[in-house]
Amino acid sequence: MFFRKTQVDPAFAKTDQGKGSLDDYKFDLVPSSNGTTIRLAGSDPHQDLLASLLGEEGIETAIGPRTIEEERVDAPMQVRLFAGGRVVGPVGQVPRGLEAVVSEAISRLELAGRKTRIPVEVVRTKQGLRVDLLMGRTR
Fold this sequence. Notes:
The protein is an alpha+beta fold. The protein is built from three helices and six strands; from the N terminus they run βαβαββαββ. A hairpin with a 2-residue loop joins β3 and β4.
């Protein structure tokens, strides 16, 4: 039997669905390894912005905690980036079904007294530029 790692979102092309799996996390939504990543969905429209960030070091997310209303209607989690001392974006969204993992990482960072930003890497793929959230670094 075949199981998809993330839910299909008809709003995005097949090559822009994002990537990640709940299997990469322990029961408390802590990444299992330092190499755990989530690739954002919906990055195709943001290729020019991503090209300007390609190769830049120290890029992080600029995601606020989800409101009760966003949780209630299961709103998509848009991702903006903090790069070069400014907030840019949006550059995509967390793939459906993985929003809780990102919210938990932000909460975990806040409780630990660290910046509530997830490290990011802009990567070149056959389909274009994509954004990987480096979830393993939030452990």
